[in-house]
Amino acid sequence: MAIEDPEGLPMSQALIRHLRLFCASPNAVPVRQKDGVLAVAGVLERAGLARLLLVDMERWGRNPGASVTNAIDRLVPAAHRYLIGGFGIALADTLIVEWDGSGAFDVVCDLGDGSGMSHRPLYGAEHDLRPRSREAFIAATGAMGRAMLQRAETVGVGDWAGVEG
Asked: Which pLDDT band holds residue 21 (cuts at 50, 70, 90)?
C-alpha cells in the first residue's frame, strides 16, 4: 500500500506525536506512558492525513507486556484516540503500520470480515524495493514517515526528553 504526500502541502507542516502504551495481555486495556509499545503518529491536519506507526519496544529491550501483533485490536483504537482522534481524522482514513522486532513493516487493516485487525506486507511505491523494508516504509510514507522513524528511534533508545502525546 503506497500513499503519496498531498500535492502542494509540505510535509514540514506535519505534527509528529508519540505515546508509550503497555498491554499486560492481548485483551487488556492499554495503559498510557508505560513501556511496551511505542505509538508514533504523523498528522497533517490541513490535508486530513494521518499515519500511525506501532513499534514493539522489544526492539530496545523495553517490552514486558503483549506485543503489537498480539494486542493489535486493543492498541490501534487506543493509539488513534490518544494521538489522532482530536484532529477529526477517522481511524478508517489513517494508514497504520506495525514495525516488528525483526525490523519488518506491515500494514495493519481491518478487512471487514469480522476477524479484527490483520497484517499485510508493506510495499513501497517503487516495485524494486524489498517488501516490508525500511525503504518501502519511507517510499510509502514520504517525509512524514522518515520523521516518524526518527522519533521512534530517539524515544526507543531513551534520548527523547519531550512530552508524550
From this structure: very high
